[in-house]
Amino acid sequence: MLMRRLGSGAVTLVLVSLIIYVATIALPGDAAVAVLGKTATPESLAAFRAEHHLDQPAALRYLAWIGDLATGNFGVSVVSGEPAGDLMVSRGLRTLTLMAFAVFIGFPLGTAIGVFAAVRRNSPADHAISLTMLVITGIPEFALAVLTVLVLSTTVFQLFPAVSIYNADQSIFAQFDMLVLPILTLVLTILPYIALTIRASMIEILDSDFVAMARLKGVPEGRVVLRHALANAAGPLIQVFAVTLVYMAGGAIIVETVFQFPGLGSALVEAVRNRDLVVVQATTLVLAIIYIGVNILADLVVVALTPRLRTKVTA
Predict the structure, then answer these.
(1) Is the pTM of this model over 0.90?
(2) Which tens digits make up the pLDDT trace of 187-214?
(3) Chain mean position to CA 241
(4) What span, in angstroms and rounded, lies between the C-alpha atoms of 94 and 81?
């Protein structure tokens, strides 16, 4: 199974790289003009295109790009001259910091809310939780970001900065107030999906025969929920965790743009604006690698935790 998943992941990554490359070269405008400006001379534009191989056929440039990627070379930014790999590391670590805090807060909170709603299903508390989660689900990420700014940074309470003026030379804990609103927005983004999915999974498990048998044996309800029902929800929990990570990798682009946080998402937006094709290709490819890797890892963990699936795979 591992070899099949890795093989399909590699094929998917190759197809994604081709789509990324075709999409980037199809962007309107001229990268040389975008970088040098409209007042640049034809000679300087030609020299720029030759330096960055923009004057070569697209097929040759794609093959050269794939060859560089195979050696770990993501290319060099045509705007800043900085290696794209270094940019991915520095910006990616900041994005991972946001995602890590959001996961450590949102996943346990969403799981607790989902379990609470499942145990009290069809009660007023369950209906209120479900309605609230559905309302939050219908609000786009950028709108959630604006709402957090309005409530916690401007008109109602002025507790946190509205933008993230991040200083790379300082510790992240020394300027944690810059991260509160982006983290809160990501938590609100992933919370409804986690809570509603866990609620549905727990309701199904609580209605199962082995849970009914445990109750007939006089097992306390708290133990039934935590030791029997929640333990058997490990598979769905892992899948929810994986989807949450993948979703946040895309949602971080919007959140970072709104709060001007210097992460991977804002790097992608800036690169598209500046026609920095090397950074666009590197950033989108890294996001695709994260997506494929997380899904493969989640599938393996689910199989490892589910005896029925292990038997099916080995058979």
Answers:
(1) no
(2) 998 898 888 888 888 888 888 887 778 7
(3) 11
(4) 21
